[in-house]
């Protein structure tokens, strides 16, 4: 789960990270009142679950409360088109903060390095901008240290990384404190990512987190009631929101071939095979193990809500899932939903033959292997 900048700042402040004074507003009038309270120049920041807001016009300086109100009016209710969200994300809140003067912008971040099976702490003197771009163009400018999970991030490791990255000496003590705080916040909240970008050094030597980002592992949310109020329905995608309500694992991918399978690994391999065969998957959908007919029908309905879908590929490997149950679900789905696009079905494993027998003479296209299934769905949707 992604949380907003102002929420991540709330969390980090509890761990001792200094953040600019400010408050969140849902209306232009509120924005004005907050700006009046803060006094002086403020920055009006769109709160959306996407980075790159600065370049997209979502971060605006205001010299007066009147101007803050105008910026808030322009932003609230509009959409922000960032490189990460080209389809646009609606803005419903803005954060109003005292504007800070910036001498230097640095990057501090922590995420999980799956290959090393450890958390990796990253520091760069090239902060402020897109860290992915820095990673592409100047990988040497990102210093990494891996954290021993038993010891946690040691202060000397943090300092070493900061010196190696070339952070100004006067900023190192605070940056080291922020890094250890960031690490504690990250582990305590079961995050998969925590970033301060930029970590700002002001001309008079102050250090502040000007931006903050945290992603919380969905599978750990049950033990974090404190994040309950941060939960928002996916405003970006109505089908994903519907899938969430139905308890189905669905991710929209933007292509035109619908994918349904059982088991996340199998579904991801199916996406790869479809891409390899020259097709573009419309979605990821995992019906899980032991899926019954009703669920299969539900899944098919969901995939067909995407108007771009020109065909659907079922890839089901029966273990505890029974091929005949899946076939029944597909047949029920087809008659109930008036399916007009071709379906390719690959059933293997438990009761696959019974399942395929049920599908005979129905116009559905059977396939024996995943590769064959991928080829066929690409052919018939071309
Ligand atoms: P992001 O683009 O979504 O990462 O949003 P940020 O909060 O990181 O803001 C982007 C950039 O706007 C920062 O790197 C700063 O250069 C600038 N910025 C943000 N807040 C302030 C501020 O209070 N004062 C000034 N002068 N610049 C700011
Ligand atoms: Mn940022």
Give the uncertain stretches in residue-range form.
none
- In the CATH scheme, the class of the largest domain would be Alpha Beta
Note the overall shape: elongated
Roughly what is the average pLDDT, rounded to an integer? 94
Strand and helix map with partners:
Layout: H1 5-14, E1 22-25, H2 28-38, E2 42-46, E3 59-62, H3 65-75, E4 79-82, E5 85-90, E6 94-98, E7 104-113, E8 118-124, H4 131-137, E9 142-147, H5 155-165, H6 172-188, E10 191-201, E11 207-209, E12 212-216, H7 238-246, E13 249-252, E14 257-261, H8 264-276, E15 283-286, H9 293-304, E16 311-318, H10 323-337, E17 343-349, H11 352-359, E18 365-367, H12 370-381
Parallel strand pairs: 14-16, 16-17, 17-18
Antiparallel strand pairs: 1-6, 2-3, 2-6, 4-5, 7-8, 7-10, 8-9, 10-11, 10-12, 13-15
Residues 197, 211 line the site of manganese (II) ion.
Structural write-up:
The structure is a single chain. With 382 residues, the chain is of the alpha+beta class. The chain folds into 3 domains: 78 residues, ATP-grasp fold, A domain (Dna Ligase, domain 1, 2-Layer Sandwich); 125 residues, 2-Layer Sandwich (D-amino Acid Aminotransferase, Chain A, domain 1); 144 residues, Rossmann fold (3-Layer(aba) Sandwich), CATH 3.40.50. The chain has 12 helices and 18 strands. The strands form 5 sheets. Strands 7, 8, 9, 10, 11 and 12 form a 6-stranded antiparallel sheet that branches. The longest helix has 17 residues. The chain starts with a helix and ends with a helix. The structure holds guanosine-5'-diphosphate and manganese (II) ion. Guanosine-5'-diphosphate binds next to strand 2 and strand 10.
């Amino acid at each position: 789960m992604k949380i907003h900048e102002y929420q991540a700042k709330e969390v980090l402040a509890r761990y001792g990270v200094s953040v600019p004074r400010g408050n969140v507003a849902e209306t232009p009038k509120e924005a004005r009142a907050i700006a009046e309270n803060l006094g002086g120049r403020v920055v009006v920041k769109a709160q959306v679950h996407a980075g790159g807001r600065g370049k997209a016009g979502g971060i605006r300086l205001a010299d007066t409360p009147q101007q803050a109100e105008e910026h808030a009016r322009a932003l609230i209710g509009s959409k922000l088109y960032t490189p990460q969200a080209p389809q646009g994300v609606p803005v419903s809140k803005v954060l109003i903060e005292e504007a800070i003067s910036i001498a230097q912008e640095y990057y501090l971040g922590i995420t999980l390095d799956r290959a090393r099976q450890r958390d990796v702490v990253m520091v760069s003197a090239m902060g402020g901008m897109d860290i992915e771009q820095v990673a592409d163009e100047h990988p040497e400018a990102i210093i990494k240290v891996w954290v021993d999970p038993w010891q946690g991030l040691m202060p000397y490791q943090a300092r070493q990384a900061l010196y190696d990255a070339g952070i100004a000496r006067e900023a190192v003590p605070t940056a080291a404190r922020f890094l250890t705080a960031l690490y504690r916040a990250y582990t305590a909240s079961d995050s998969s990512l925590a970033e301060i970008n930029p970590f700002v050094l002001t001309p008079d030597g102050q250090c502040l987190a000007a931006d903050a980002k945290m992603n919380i592992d969905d599978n750990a949310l049950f033990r974090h009631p404190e994040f309950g109020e941060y939960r928002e329905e996916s405003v970006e995608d109505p089908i994903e929101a519907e899938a969430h309500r139905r308890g189905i694992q669905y991710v929209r991918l933007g292509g035109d071939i619908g994918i349904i399978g059982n088991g996340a690994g199998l579904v991801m391999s199916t996406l790869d095979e479809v891409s390899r065969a020259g097709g573009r998957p419309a979605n990821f959908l995992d019906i899980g193990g032991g899926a019954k007919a009703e669920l299969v029908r539900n899944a098919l309905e969901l995939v067909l809500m995407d108007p771009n879908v020109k065909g659907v590929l079922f890839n089901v490997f029966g273990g505890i899932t029974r091929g005949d149950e899946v076939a029944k679900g597909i047949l029920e789905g087809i008659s109930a939903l008036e399916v007009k696009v071709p379906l390719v079905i690959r059933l293997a494993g438990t009761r696959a033959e019974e399942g395929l027998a049920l599908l005979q003479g129905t116009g559905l296209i059977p396939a024996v292997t995943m590769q064959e299934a991928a080829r066929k769905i690409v052919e018939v949707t071309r």
